[in-house]
Amino acid sequence: MLLFYQPELTNGVKHLDADESRHAVKVLRLKEGSHIHVTDGHGNLYEARITDENHRKCGFELLQNHPEQAFRTYRHLVIAPTKNMDRMEWLVEKATEIGVDRISLIKCSNSERTVVKTDRLIKKAVSAMKQSLKATLPQVDEIVSFKNYLQNETAQQKFIAYVDFENPVELQTVIHPGEENVVLIGPEGDFSPEELQMALDSGFRKVSLGTSRLRTETAGLAAVHLLNLFGK
Description:
This protein is α/β, with parallel strands linked by helices. It has 2 domains: 3-65, CATH 2.40.240.20; 74-230, SPOUT methyltransferase, trefoil knot domain (Alpha/beta knot, 3-Layer(aba) Sandwich). It is 30% helix and 23% strand. It contains 6 helices and 11 strands. It has helices spanning 18-27, 85-98, 118-131, 146-152, 193-201, 216-230, and strands at residues 3-5, 35-39, 45-52, 59-65, 74-79, 102-107, 139-140, 144-145, 157-161, 180-185, 205-207. It is elongated. Residues 76-227 form the Ribosomal RNA small subunit methyltransferase E methyltransferase domain. Keywords: Cytoplasm, Methyltransferase, rRNA processing, S-adenosyl-L-methionine, Transferase. Belongs to the RNA methyltransferase RsmE family. One of its GO terms (cellular component) is cytoplasm.
């Protein structure tokens, strides 16, 4: 399947952008009449036919929509970005492949990175969506302070992963299928005791991701994987 991304499909745009057009016409050598698939990133997956093999503005007509079946549970990952952005890009890519609805970035007391350009992360998410043949692009939020995030979170089920090996509550045992589940992942130095208490006071429940001490991006991916396994 040849999958392309056009977020403006719902606004009547029936051509690929410059990069996608160049890839389709110059790299893949697609011609007028060639069949492709196009998604808007909102769960719609269209069969389409190329009508204009223009390498700057490749036109197409829509033939049929095969909507992607929505996942039962809304999967929201909130994470403090790592100092090395390559690791965050890896996380966004793999989380998109596995399945995630939203990724929010937060600044914590122990954060080593407080500024993030999300456009690069979104590009990684788009690439992963197409590579894994998905039709839903996760929302990637701009970084905000931990306090600001807590003040605006309205999820039904809220969990904070905290390195506490005496904590017996494992994430997979408390996931609520069919509802919005949000999991907080802290920086390499973990959440401060004050941040943990703020989260608990805001209705979050402390959970464990297992017996191993995990890197931030590994913990994020583990949380996404558990939400997919136990949120069906």
